[in-house]
Amino acid sequence: MRVYLPATLPALAAWLAAGQVPQGHGAAVTPALREWYRSGDLEELEYAAMIEAARASLRLLAVDAQAPRRRVVVVADVEADTAVTPDVAAGRAAVHVGGPIRWNRVAAVHVDDPAAEPVIARALLDPTAADAARCLDDVDACELAWYATQEIPDLLAAGAKEDRWTQ
Length: 167
Known about the structure:
The chain is α+β, with helices and mostly antiparallel strands. Helix content is 41%, strand content 24%. The chain has a seven-stranded antiparallel beta sheet with strand order 5-6-3-1-4-8-9. It has a two-stranded antiparallel sheet with strand order 2-7. Strand 5 (84-86) and strand 6 (94-97) form a beta hairpin. The relative contact order is 0.21. The model has no long low-confidence stretch (mean pLDDT 90).
């Protein structure tokens, strides 16, 4: 099963160093998502799950003031022996991954371009209720760039050169 796991850049660096992604919450193509998005093909459903994980990444950024203001979504293909259970109370695509995922199961990573940082920072400034929906729409309009697994060390090294986070 493919899962989309929210992260921050410092968390991504820690996971890479550890060689695994810890158990936790993510998003996937769940029965509830399929039912809600009846006309979508698998690619559209996976995109919807990725967007849910990107919104969860934004929530992680809200509690980590030191992390660069860039959403991160780790895409992994979970082994059959790793329990992935839907968490309908948390959302249509929400799942709980019941065990760590070995790094070699990571398929790719999606990360905001640095140009998105001001948009994300503005959304995290606790906007008024009237502005919150607009801020979220602005963040959703920022496309996440795709990185192959072999590109992740270079992505992290570029941030480290800017002294933005430590590994």
